[in-house]
């Protein structure tokens, strides 16, 4: 929990600091860049998920080839998409290339986190999470503090992030695994693809409103909306540790773990929404500075979006652990619906986009509650 909180604090410090060091237009670009890294790094999260579930069931197996291929595809797609991303999202052309370096580093690191998580080596997993967060955000924070500007901060961030995989590989090193009487099945491409699809859908649907803000809102309102999403992401990732701890047990068929994970995550979200309702102006002041205090009335809605998606995240991981065939289907449908509603039905305003995003989160949770009746695997 401490490691997750520290990592989240670094992630939130970037937009908080950027709101005070960059103008509104540059803040919107940086927030979009962070969102792109989060989405492009999803194959790494999928790899971590697949490795953790496989390790929990069968023990450690080689995953070097899958790791390298996943990292190469993640960074390569981002570079190849530069001619489309730069004009569509109004980004400097060099930004996607810098983001690709960070993405590759995050994906390579995720394999080792999966080994630690699946093996329930939670102390080392905590250290690994902290190291990855420091590598992922520390360079950007340093660049902002040094006044390097938008591009300079992203450059420093990419250089620092490249060190993370080396440190995590050493942290996850251990004695060679003993040879079992019956060889464990190899990690399959289908498992990795399922994990990638699930995590990609989760992050796309939760970041879609931020990306839509870049398209539908003026630069100043887009920057203000980016500040609001800091609250949403806080409510989404604050209880992440619950899912991290529960996943190996879910993979082994522990049905009680899902109930406990849902209860704790839901309670955490309710508390965060209540806190946002009582201190919305303060929340926006902490997230973006005094210029954004006027938006405090919207704080509970942003917090509710993140809290709803946190519960969805637990249900999604439970379905992946249970071997569901299409666990992320409701999330993809909801993403398409949000794009259509925000783009063609709702007004292109701050509040129009916000309420569209909140309605989507409610619909996703309802759909996942219906489809998550699939049984967990039989207890090991």
UniProtKB/TrEMBL annotation:
Its membrane topology: Multi-pass membrane protein
User: Where does it localize?
Assistant: Cell membrane
Q: Please tell me where this protein is predominantly located.
A: membrane
Which residues span the membrane?
28-54, 66-85, 91-113, 125-148, 154-173, 185-205, 225-247, 259-283, 295-316, 328-346, 352-371
For this UniProt record, the keywords arranged alphabetically read as follows: Cell membrane, Membrane, Transmembrane, Transmembrane helix
**InterPro entries assigned:** Poly_Biosynth_Transport
The reply to whether Transcription figures as a keyword in the UniProt entry is no
Would you tell me the protein name for this molecule? Polysaccharide biosynthesis protein
Originating organism: Micromonospora mangrovi
Q: What is the lineage of its organism?
A: Bacteria, Bacillati, Actinomycetota, Actinomycetes, Micromonosporales
